[in-house]
Amino acid sequence: MASSRFERDVAIAAPLERVFAELSDPARFLGLQPLLTEVREITAPPGARAFEAVERVALFGAFAVRNRLHVELVPMPDQQRVGFMTRAPLGIRLSGDFSLQAEGAKTRVRESVLLACPLLLRRFVLREAIHAQEALLANLARRLESLG
Fold first, then answer.
1. Cα dihedral 13→114→35→103 (10° resolution)
2. What is the pLDDT of residues 45-69, one digit of tens each?
3. Cα gap 90→132, rounded to integer Å
4. How many domains is the chain built from?
5. How many CB atoms lie within 10 A of CB 119?
6. Can you give the CATH number for the domain in which 104 is found?
7. I need a labelling partner for 127 at 20 to 30 A (CA). Which of 1, 40, 111, 115 fits?
8. CB 92 within 8 A of CB 128
9. So what's the pLDDT on residue 2?
10. Are the beta carbons of 117 and 93 closer than 8 angstroms?
């Protein structure tokens, strides 16, 4: 099993409370994370929210694979963080958090991710995960800033 860490951040012109609420709601990930095509909230342990999702991953151009994901979100309002754990097929696991920090009228969102997957898949999965992370943060900013 190979592992990699990566993180990105973005400043969003929206109050921290609104950003936190957006990242704590499973239904809101549809349209944020570009690979997701379905999201369905399921029962979660106390203090968490969980959902099953389907992602569409393009392989070899037009050929795409639909993967079922299990995602658990752990909102931590006192720490201004939302933790997450994702299980995907083939032993692919992602965990990490979104940490939020108020910066005047903006909120800085830093997403830190630990990816664990079979070594053979590492290069492809890491590239796709970083691309998805960058798109998620850009979509989050676009969505919240358009609300004014």
1. 0
2. 999 999 999 988 877 677 788 889 9
3. 18
4. 1
5. 9
6. 3.30.530.20
7. 40
8. no
9. 92
10. yes
